[in-house]
């Protein structure tokens, strides 16, 4: 049984730049296609990766290492000592914790549920789940601005129950990680449900039938049979989502402008880098923070992939 | 145009508010790296008041020193100390003020006479609070002030001489919340019992509308007259023309005749312009000419003092008591305290992220409780920008606010 081609997830958080690239896995080319077509597409991909992925990264690293006294790590040290640096990383880590846990549980749960439905019903639900992710990041933020304002929100009853009468109340600093987790979930979950559904389709039906013959009910089948077999996909989702989450930018930036600065312009590390570069004209320290984010995302990805055994063939 | 027929000046109006959107900074930062394009504007109108000094000094250095182009006699005719927003630490003048947005005491003349008869309008913050107590008791629902907006630091702290944004040297700022000017206004307002009722926490630009018809008096910039009160909306969100009058702003809590300001625009001339003399002349014309600085063209009191008299004379019946209002505008324009900025960060944004959530929550916090977090946010912005912070507050001087 061949594993299908791995595709990049649709509905990816539109404000994120890519973290790790997925690697192509193929056993053999489909019958009827020549190898050169494959090389051609890969070559295109490599060209774009070089120009739009590798080159900017190299430029950022060179900017980060450049100081008036030659190459050194001074920019990294200086940016670390800025008063907003640690709080920004704390904010984003808290956001990631809330978001990744809730997203994993809900996406896998919904995917398993949807997988059990009849085909057309399942397809309809997958489409509905996917729709929010089709909106570009900035557009979805504007929608959430309405949702968070008690005077215009369809969920006003929830906001009023929390004693929020103004947008300023909803967007208080302590609420921000939860708010961004909600927004990120809303845009990203649909696409991941589609991906998980695809992964679930690869679970051999013989296994499921055998389990049912052995007396397993739906819940047990889901948890004991299907879930372990899609573990790699969950790990894949975690890696990409984590990388995207560390780069959180559009949501706090737009929310900040809409609330007149209530979300500080240096709330997330990416915002801090942007502020350093485009408000204070200090591109080198901004590049240092970008490289910090890159290294951080890579490290976490390596750990997750290694522990999650992503590239082992079963 | 007639004086400079061959000049082809490109001028652009940029958006801007005091909350740090940084449009010009990002453009200039990019242009400084890749080279200024030939179609970059020569003259820019900008309403982010702290932009000029930031963009005219290192690392930007992108603004023309207008001292070499505009006669000194013109430069000294701007109201009061308002040109401090245009003066770099080394004495260069890098912008011309277009209009002033000084804070005055807006009074609904009809309501005031109805509630207080012939009593004179308050001249101190204590007087405003006293009137507020009367109103809270006898006429609940009416308003004497607002602390729910992100720019209220401009009235409350700037207008009282509280040093939270005071430039004391090159790249050095004093941020001292323990100063008596700060503590006195905080305790006056917090202990008044008016916060949340007669001193409302509703935004003046709230989505649901601001109850302008309930305002008996309010300290606010002079453009509030037509933008917040007589704004063309029907009661209770607006009042008709001829209802509001402006009175001189209250003395500071330490008795000084100073006031704050909110807004006003700046004319900036790029130092990369290929025709600096013409560009500077254009900026000077826009800022000082009575053809431009008149009521039908521009909505704010000219900062150029010689133009102010004809501007206020043209009020007509827009405001109640036009003579008093005009005089109050001119007085306020000359009283704007020069101890607030210009610094390359937005004090309003810091206020919005620290004080506004506190005072608008249920139950509301008080200004006295929030001032340390406000000052700390300002200190962090200052240190991020590479400035040194002077303070006698333990909270501000500790790293990460551990002493707060």
Give a description of the structure.
The complex is a heterodimer of chains A (314) and B (404). Chain A is mainly alpha-helical and 314 residues long. Chain A has a single domain (35-308), classed as MetI-like (MetI-like fold), CATH 1.10.3720. Chain A contains 14 helices and two strands, in the order H-E-E-H-H-H-H-H-H-H-H-H-H-H-H-H. A two-stranded antiparallel ribbon of chain A has the order 1-2. In chain A, helix 11 packs antiparallel against helix 14 (283-308). The N and C termini of chain A lie close together (11 Å). Chain B has helices at 23-34, 51-56, 72-75, 109-116, 125-138, 153-156, 180-190, 224-229, 276-288, 305-313, 322-335, 347-359, 367-384, 394-397; strands at 11-13, 43-46, 96-97, 99-100, 103-108, 145-146, 166-169, 172-174, 199-200, 217-221, 244-247, 266-269, 301-302, 388-390. Chain B has a four-stranded mixed β-sheet with strand order 1-2-12-3, covered by helices on one side. Chain B has a three-stranded antiparallel β-sheet with strand order 10-5-11. In chain B, strands 7-8-14 form a three-stranded mixed β-sheet, covered by helices on one side. Chain B is of the alpha/beta class and 404 residues long. The longest helix of chain B has 18 residues, at 367-384. Chain B has two domains: 11-101 and 262-322, Periplasmic binding protein-like II (D-Maltodextrin-Binding Protein, domain 2, 3-Layer(aba) Sandwich); 103-259 and 345-401, 3-Layer(aba) Sandwich (D-Maltodextrin-Binding Protein, domain 2). The chains are: A mainly alpha (314), B alpha/beta (404). The interface between A and B is large, with 35 and 43 residues.
